[in-house]
Amino acid sequence: MTEQPRTADTAAGQADSGRASDPSAAATPEDHLVTTLHSLSLPDGPLDYTATAGTVVLKEEPEGEEYGRGAAFAELFSVSYVVSSGDAARPVVFAFNGGPGASTVWLHLGLLGPRRVDSGDAGAPAAPPHQLLDNHETILKDADLVVVDAMTTGFSRPAPGQKPARHHGLAEDRDLIAAFVIDWLTRHQRWTSPIFLAGESYGTTRASAVAARLMDRYYVAVAGIALISPVLDFGSIVFSAGNDRPYLHYLPTYAAIAHAHGKHEDRMLQDVVDEAEAFAEQEYPALLAAGLRLAPEQKQEAAARIGALIGVDPEWVERADLRVEHLAFLAELQRDRGLVTGRIDGRFSAPAGNGNSARMETDPSIDQLAPSYTATINQYLRGELEFSSDVVYEIMSGRVHPWSYKDFENRSVEVASDLSRVLRKSPHTKVLVSHGYHDAATPFHASEHVLAQLAIPREDYAERIRIEYYEAGHMMYCHEPSRLALSQHLSEFVTGAGPAAAPSADED
């Protein structure tokens, strides 16, 4: 069935009465959706669209004697933007953030939606009152957009009688989001539309897993997967005993962040990154592998080299046994200035609460960006989109933890195999990868390494995967030049234009 427009008062009233005073209605939840009409003024003319915000009830088919009888198990919150052209063949982008525990407010208001937050940037975060601006680079120009919040984020909650923990895990979350995509395509009669998935951070883990689930379970092939600040193999970024991979992969990011804070005067960022990558790939692995076999003078020389690359005291590097953990680095880099450095975006800084702290205590980049997103999403949903709920919109929720990785006991959590399988099964699926040089959450070199090891033909890696870089951090769209560049790259990706386009028949 299709979603029917209704007023905010009617929808909210039905939902409130069902949840607060009528036990039978609470036991059988209903969709709570509000549709509003909008127009965005663009240089080429107005873009008319509908926005449908609210929760939809997802049902599952139990096994055993009840097989085939759908039962409600989740109420997922989303906002669907559909251009009023009525073109059923228009692409649809399903977008989500990560965490786990992050709502999709970041991609929604930071990059993709028709309205965007004025968040400010490193060194100049926005002050209240926070405001929204028209987003003239919205992906809505090229595709319809659905932003969906994972369980226990945003307004998404389990159905009455269900437990949220059943959705708090990689496999469970994957299945839930895939079920939402199938439900949305059916409700809106959009089964013939090209389908794109866009994820950020853990959302890239989710996007790869969901793409595989859609193909393996439903035989739905996505047209493209946009991986923004990706993590496809946690073994490449999680520091643990006996695992030297993160130390290698983080080093180029440390060097880039050091450059942002003036540690490489009169040098270009790209030159610094290239030198750090060459060291991380050629000399550094052998130095770490040598361990106690490394002579003292060799260790001192290596520490001096690393210290110069990442902008810290070589003696500190030597005491760390040449292994620099990222939270320790972010506390150390600007210690002499009394500052702590951002993790999500290493261009950000804030006063250190404890000048002797061994690790960063809080992330200045999240602290300085999140308030503008929190204020504007709550105002936007209730004001412009006319949707209200009696629960808190969870921007970032720790209630999703512990997050289950039960299928990965005694091995690294990874979805690179999922992405490889999708690309092998679906010859038309393409991938756009977006890296921020100053991202100390999901370092670009780790992603480069994992992508280069995908179990696909070499020509597919060269022709179907486009990799882009931005002089910003994890949420590179808070940096205006990077936002404009990423928006253009996404437009080219969805429309098939630009560098990612396949040759036309005339070019064959």
TrEMBL record:
| Record SUPFAM superfamilies | alpha/beta-Hydrolases
Q: Which Gene3D superfamilies match?
A: alpha/beta hydrolase (3.40.50.1820)
Against InterPro entries, the record matches this protein to: AB_hydrolase_fold, Peptidase_S10
Looking up Pfam families in the UniProt record yields: Peptidase_S10
Q: Which GO terms describe its biological process?
A: proteolysis
Residue ranges for the region (Disordered) are 1-28
Domain of life per record: Bacteria
Give the keywords, sorted: Carboxypeptidase, Hydrolase, Protease
Named from the GO MF annotations, one term is: serine-type carboxypeptidase activity
The name this protein carries in UniProt is: Carboxypeptidase
Q: Identify the species of origin.
A: Brachybacterium ginsengisoli
